[in-house]
Structure formats: C-alpha cells, structure tokens
Specification:
The complex is a heterodimer of chains A (162) and B (396).
Chain A (H helix, E strand, L loop, with lengths): L1 E2 L2 H19 L3 H5 L2 E11 H5 L7 E3 L2 H14 L7 E14 L5 E13 L6 E15 L2 E11 L3 E3 L7
Parallel strand pairs in A: 2-7
Antiparallel strand pairs in A: 1-4, 2-3, 4-5, 5-6, 6-7
Chain B lengths: L2 H4 L12 E3 L8 H10 L5 E5 L8 E7 L2 E7 L5 E5 L14 E3 L3 E2 L6 E2 L5 E3 L21 E5 L2 E5 L7 H5 L1 H10 L6 E11 L3 H8 L8 H5 L3 E9 L5 E8 L24 E6 L3 E6 L2 E9 L5 E10 L4 H14 L8 H13 L5 E3 L13 E2 L8 H11 L7
The chains are: A alpha+beta (162), B alpha+beta (396).
Chain lengths: 162, 396
C-alpha cells in the first residue's frame, strides 16, 4: 500500500461527490454510472460486520444486481412508498493505493432524511464507507462500495441506497 | 391478576366483529394495561434461537414488554433467560445487544454470577444482613420452554405448556420453518423501528392482500394453493405452495428469486403468534421477526435470518442473497409494508373503525375457518385482545 497521489485523490473525491449528487437528485442512472462493470454495492450494519454475519440490508454483489436496484427504485417500488429527500455529509478518512493499481478509501458519512409529509428532518443513518476503487478511462469508479451503518436499528424503511 | 382492577381505560367496542375501533391504536393509558394484561400475562414470547447463541457464554439481550431480559448459553449447555438486573441494587448486567461472557459481573459492587445465574461472589459479605445467603440471590429467571431450538419465555406460571398453547396447526409448520429439526445457523439481522402502534404492525405484517406488492405482478409471481388456520387464542398460520415463473424477465439477475427448496419445504409459511411475533419461510428464507413495542408508538423489529446446518456453500450463499434483498425494511417484496405501517398510523388518528371485509360471512361471529387470503384471520386475535383487556362489546 502506498500514499495516493494528489491527482488520484482528486479523482476519488470526484467519484464520491458524483455518488452523493446522484442520490440527492434521485438520479439512479448516475448512481449506477459510479460503478465499474465489476461493481458491487452493499448496505449493512456495524453489528453484522462485527459478528461476521453476511446478511445485509441491500446486497448487490454483481453488476446485474446494481441494475436491478435501479429498476427496484425507479419502477417496481416507485409509487409504493413516501418519498423522502436525503442529504449526505461525508468525510474522507483515508485513501491508499494497492500494488494492484486499485485504491482503498474510507469515508465517514451521516445521512439525514426529510419526508414530504412531515417536513421534519431526522437522521437516517450514520456510518462509514469502505471503498475499493478502480480508475478507468481517466475516471474513478467503485469496484465495491460497502456502506456500514452504526445505526444498527434503522428508522421506518430505506428505499434508496445510502 | 384481576382484569377489573387494571381497567383504567375503557373502549366502546363495536358489536360487529369485523370492526376495530381506531382509538384502540391511539388512546392514552392502554399500553400500561396491555403490559399487565397481555405481555406479562399468560403468553409465550420467543426470545432467542440456539443458533443465535451457539457457544457457552454467548448471550443476547431482548425485551419482554418493558422488562429487559437476556438469554445466555450456560457452561452446562442449557439456555436460560434472566431479567437483566443484578439482584443487589438493580444494575443491568449486560449492556450490549449480544456478546460472550465467562461470567456475569456487576460493575457496581462486583457481585458475580455464573452463567447458570447463581450468585458466586460478593465482596464484603461478612458485613451483610444476618440472614444473607448467596443462594437467595440468584438471577431472576423466567419460565422457559424450547421448540426445535427456539426459546420462549413467559411471565406467568399459569401459561399452558407451549405445544398446548400453540396447537398443532401452529407448531407443526413452525417445526418446518425451523428447518424441520431446528439445526440452524444464524446468518444475520436486519433491525428497524416501524412507525406505528404494535397492534397495527400485527394486523399488517404477517399477511395482507398481495395488491400492495407491485413486485408480485411485475415478476409474474402467483401464489399457489394453500391454507390459513386460526386458533381460538389468536395464533395464525399460512401454509402455501409457491408457483414460481420459469424465467423472471423483469430482473437482470433472476437468480435472486430461485426456489431451491428442501425436503421440509412447502414454499411459503407465514406464522404469527399472539401477541406480536411473525415467523416466515418464503422460498429459501428462514426468518424470525422478534418484535418489541416501544410503548404505544413504534415497534422495533429484529429480522433474524438462518441457514440450515446441512446446507452446502451454494445454498448458504443463495439464502444470504435472497434474504438480504427480498425481505426487511429495504426488501424488494416488503419495503412497501413498512411504508404502509406509517400511513396506517396516520390514518388511525381519525375517527371511526378499521374494518376487515374479505371473507366475512357473519359480521357478528368470530370465524376460525377462514380462506387462504381472507382478512378474517385477524379477528380471533382481536377478540382475544378485547377479552384480555376487558372491553365490553356493544350489544347487537
């Protein structure tokens, strides 16, 4: 492992910003575009990780599952739940380059949500991202993004990826 | 316990059995009555499966009503359930939701209990009261019965034995849901707080019209033949065949919906034990939903998922992928349940009754024979609730 160059660090930060912008705007196509063709997304709890329990809240372990996640949000469950606005606040904790040319990045995150019916803002979850990132055609993409929530007990329901 | 003495709050109950007054979800003071008359009464509550605490010293914290309890796997292999309190000054003994301890030490005055609940050490004993005897200060244990590794607790000595309490129509499918022999492995949890009264959760979590689930139609997924059986004391069991489509066009990765099946499987089992717990086996997902009311508003539900000890690696992986993505607060076929809980909760803050219709033949009877998809399976539970709470039904 070695330190990430400023240029690559900027690419990693750009990717995280694109990811957050996609979710804030409910643009699931842009969310999907943040992943490489080998991409995986997992949303799980700190408790499951700590106890080495493999169940997750969302387990998209191949690109086909990522595409199905988009379909689930945009079509299958589009009118099944009340919409809520999300805001992500993230903080890069570490970024390293592996010998394979891939990158590891760790972020803290807090996500607030504001349902349209109450218009009150509450915490959806707080946690950390553990990312494996590749650089393809000059842009960083997630090979794997694991969102691990300290909020082991989530409020109500979670429609969108975190 | 006298129901009359505890009837601090009353509700004018409609004569028609398919009507439930909405104020039962909202009225102040009911929760305290429900604790005394139901949760601390003659009911069995599932607390833990052996697969969740498989090794000596493993423990799991839970609640029974508002009482904090924990289950612990003893050095002797027995699983016991104790109230979570030191018998000296009342300090909680375990603070994490789960873990492993060699012994249970209270940090306050260093009273020490073994995993079987005996007080084995207490510094300064010579200065204690003249009659002090460690034997009198073991942990407060609950009455426990196990069924294929699933441990139930009750607060009452009068609760009938477990099998009698549930009846065969409930415990036979529960055995199948527990893998046939109870030899399960825990594969993880999904935990969530639903935004509704616990009784609204009961009405809607176990089974409801498939109309809510757009995914069923998009996936070309039809339910097969099946039965719904109700017991007089309010337990419910649904046992259905599943007819899965050959190919799922709506998804890129249809393998998530594969039904690999086992010899104990009949496709879909949904059980609900009075007062609040749902157990499901949909396709290859084995799931117990431990549920804890947060007072009158909110229900914390812990979805625990299991694999079977005889599963090969491929089956375990399949169960993990299916369980993670189909059920729970984010699931493809159940996220909207959670959304509906919130809407029902808001709707219950209006006047009138919540009404069950599908399957009603006589609006003044409590049907025990119900069709597979009838709403009337809920009525025996409501009748038992009404009786336990001592609410008078209006004359016809």
């Amino acid at each position: 492992m070695s330190k990430v160059s400023p240029a690559n660090k900027e690419l990693i930060e750009d990717l995280n910003s694109e990811y957050i912008a996609a979710l804030n705007d409910f643009n699931m196509d842009n969310w999907l575009a943040c992943f490489s063709q080998q991409g995986q997304y997992i949303l799980t709890s700190e408790e499951n990780i700590r106890r080495r329990l493999p169940i997750a809240f969302m387990l998209d372990d191949c690109y086909a599952r990522l595409k199905d996640r988009v379909k689930q949000v945009m079509e299958i469950q589009y009118d099944s739940s009340e919409h809520y606005q999300m805001r992500h606040f993230t903080q890069l904790i570490s970024a390293t380059e592996l010998k394979t040319g891939e990158f590891k990045a760790n972020y803290n995150f807090s996500v607030y949500y504001t349902p349209r019916d109450t218009n009150q803002t509450e915490t959806l979850c707080v946690g950390r991202y553990e990312d494996t990132i590749v650089i393809e055609s000059g842009a960083a993409r997630f090979k794997k993004r694991i969102a691990i929530v300290d909020t082991n007990v989530l409020p109500r329901y979670v429609v969108y990826p975190v | 316990m006298s129901i009359e003495n505890n009837s601090t709050s009353s509700i004018d109950w409609p004569a028609k059995t398919n009507h439930v007054p909405k104020e039962v979800f909202e009225k102040e003071g009911l929760w305290e009555q429900e604790l005394e008359n139901i949760f601390y009464g003659e009911e069995w509550h599932p607390i833990v499966h052996r697969a969740e605490i498989p090794n000596p010293g493993d423990y799991k914290a839970a609640q029974l009503g508002e009482i904090n309890v924990f289950a612990v796997h003893g050095d002797d292999g027995e699983i016991r359930i104790f109230q979570n309190t030191c018998t000296h000054r009342g300090t909680s003994l375990v603070t994490d939701s789960s873990g492993n301890k060699k012994e249970l030490e209270c940090p306050y005055h260093r009273w020490l209990f073994n995993l079987e609940g005996d007080l084995v050490g207490c510094p300064g004993e010579r200065e204690f009261s003249p009659d002090f005897d460690k034997k009198d200060y073991g942990l407060l244990s609950l009455r426990v019965e196990a069924f294929y590794g699933l441990y139930f607790a009750t607060m009452s000595d009068k609760t009938p034995p477990l099998k009698e309490y549930f009846g065969e129509s409930f415990y036979e499918p529960l055995q199948r849901l527990l893998g046939g022999d109870g030899r399960l492995n825990l594969i993880g949890y999904q935990k969530v707080v639903y935004d509704c009264n616990w009784k609204a959760y009961c009405d809607n979590d176990g089974y409801h019209g498939a109309l809510l689930h757009k995914a069923f139609a998009m996936l070309n997924w039809q339910g097969g033949k099946g039965t719904q059986i109700v017991t007089k004391n309010g337990h419910l069991s649904f046992d259905s065949e599943l007819t899965m489509p050959d190919h799922v066009d709506a998804l890129e990765d249809g393998s998530i919906l594969d039904f690999k099946g086992t010899e104990t499987s009949n496709g879909s089992i949904v059980l609900m034990s009075f007062p609040i717990t749902v157990y499901t086996k949909h396709m290859d997902m084995l799931n117990i939903r431990y549920s804890f009311p947060k007072g009158p508003k909110g229900v914390e539900v812990h979805y625990a998922y299991f694999s079977h000890q005889d599963d090969d690696d491929e089956m375990i992986k399949h169960r993990i992928r299916q369980s993670s993505n189909l059920l729970g607060p984010c699931g493809l076929i159940s996220m909207e349940d959670a959304s509906v809980f919130s809407r029902i909760d808001k709707g219950n803050k209006t006047q009138g009754d919540a009404i069950f219709q599908k399957g009603v033949e006589d609006e003044y009877a409590i049907p025990l024979k119900v069709g597979q998809t009838d709403e009337t399976g809920n009525l025996a539970r409501w009748e038992r609730y009404r009786e336990l709470m001592g609410f008078e039904r209006r004359a016809k």
